[in-house]
């Protein structure tokens, strides 16, 4: 049994982080930087290829539709990634720009344009002729609204995970791999491991993603495990040249939504569905059947000139936890536990920023209430005050 070693009143705490996805690793990074004694536990290897955040790329962009609070958090998110790059000694970010398209005059794209204007964020609107001339690899038929933002790009998630795991080991963070957590006691700060061990800490932080409900079944009423599908493609030389310099493409209407990730810096071109399927078992097989692959290609392929020349390199399911209204959650449980559910398809970009602010909260820089509201995308959050 491992017992808490920190003295009462000490600012240095023994902290157990459960889950080594991007949020778990970011929390371990930020908390160890702040001087805490950190143990990171995952049911698989660290990094774990089955985690929702392990992939070739994730997106960071200001376009956020009506979600003003999250759009305002993108600027500090960029700064937090810069801090991480400094610590890792390398950057895993590539600016590509972001192109939003829609067949509707009003919706996610038009709202993103209005919000950007109100916040002073550079954003171009494009008519169909401008769109066709500037992005000839997009079939513009039926597109009514389009926008472009230069300040957006790709976070190379698998490379980030590998380097973060290496950095955590260097910092002295204890990594416990291939060992599930069966339960926690948020009052005493105890975590029960499947191999029979017990970890005791001053604080437990649960960042277990889609496996959180298995550890805390009571959360099942507000968090739903959902399934998205993604496919990776190899491209012929001429299209590879084009798409290696293209922006991310987003068509995030409620029906038939999808996104296209360019093949920058040696990665594959990726097509993903925007609409998840609810109530999915995260331990289900990750492989897609032929009908799912066909539907995925047809959804986005109609917009991509030359898509019939793409060669499928791989396809898989990605499981993510969703909360009501697509908000991200961070909440205290008892005296010695916090839960994070920040994988609602858009949380990845905020992980280092949220982790750094969480570490600052533990030092008294802001209240638990203020932190919770920030994570939930409260547009009125000011970074200082809040009710516990």
What composes the largest sheet? 9 strands, mixed
Low-pLDDT residue spans: 1-5, 384-388
What percentage of amino acids are in beta strands? 25-35%
**How much helicity do the residues have?**
25-40%
The N- to C-terminal Cα distance equals 32 Å
Q: What's the total count of β strands?
A: 21
**What does the radius of gyration come to?**
21 Å
SS-derived structural category: alpha+beta
How many helices does DSSP assign?
Answer: 10
Describe the structure.
The chain has helices at 22-33, 68-88, 108-119, 128-134, 157-171, 212-215, 237-243, 290-301, 351-362, 368-375; strands at 14-18, 37-41, 58-61, 93-95, 98-102, 124-126, 145-149, 152-155, 174-176, 181-185, 190-193, 198-200, 203-206, 224-234, 248-251, 258-261, 269-273, 277-278, 311-322, 329-333, 337-341. It is an alpha+beta fold and 388 residues long. The strands form four sheets. Strands 5, 6, 7, 14, 15, 16, 17, 18 and 19 form a nine-stranded mixed sheet that branches. A six-stranded mixed sheet has the order 9-2-1-13-21-20. A three-stranded antiparallel sheet has the order 3-8-4, covered by helices on one side.
């Amino acid at each position: 049994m491992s017992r808490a070693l920190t003295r009462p009143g000490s600012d240095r705490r023994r902290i157990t982080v459960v889950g080594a996805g991007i949020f778990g690793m970011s929390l371990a990074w930020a908390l160890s930087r702040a001087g805490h004694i950190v143990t990171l536990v995952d049911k698989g290897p660290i990094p774990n290829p089955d985690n929702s955040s392990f992939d070739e790329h994730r997106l960071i962009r200001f376009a956020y539709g009506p979600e003003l609070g999250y759009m305002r958090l993108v600027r500090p998110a960029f700064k937090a990634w810069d801090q991480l790059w400094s610590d890792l000694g390398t950057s895993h970010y590539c600016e590509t720009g972001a192109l939003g398209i829609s067949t509707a005059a009003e919706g996610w794209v038009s709202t993103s344009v209005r919000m950007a204007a109100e916040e002073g964020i550079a954003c171009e609107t494009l008519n169909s002729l401008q769109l066709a001339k500037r992005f000839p690899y997009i079939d513009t038929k039926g597109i009514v609204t389009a926008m472009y933002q230069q300040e957006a790009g790709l976070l190379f998630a698998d490379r980030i995970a590998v380097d973060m795991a290496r950095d955590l080991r260097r910092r002295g963070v204890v990594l416990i791999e291939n060992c599930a957590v069966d339960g926690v006691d948020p009052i005493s700060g105890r975590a029960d491991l499947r191999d029979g061990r017990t970890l005791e800490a001053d604080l437990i932080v649960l960042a277990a993603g889609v496996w959180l409900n298995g550890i805390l079944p009571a959360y099942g009423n507000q968090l739903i495990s959902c399934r998205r599908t993604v496919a990776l493609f190899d491209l012929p030389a001429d299209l590879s040249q084009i798409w290696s310099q293209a922006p991310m493409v987003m068509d995030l209407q409620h029906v038939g939504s999808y996104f296209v990730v360019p093949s920058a810096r040696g990665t594959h071109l990726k097509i993903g569905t925007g609409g998840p399927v609810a109530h999915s078992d995260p331990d289900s097989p990750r492989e897609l059947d032929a009908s799912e692959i066909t539907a995925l290609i047809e959804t986005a392929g109609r917009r991509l000139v030359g898509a019939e020349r793409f060669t499928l390199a791989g396809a898989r399911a990605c499981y993510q936890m969703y909360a009501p209204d697509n908000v991200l959650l961070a909440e205290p449980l008892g005296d010695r536990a916090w839960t994070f559910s920040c994988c609602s398809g858009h949380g990845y970009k905020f992980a280092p920023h949220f982790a750094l602010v969480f570490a600052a909260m533990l030092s008294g820089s802001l209240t638990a209430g203020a932190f919770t509201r920030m994570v939930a995308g409260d547009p009125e959050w000011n970074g200082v005050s809040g009710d516990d």
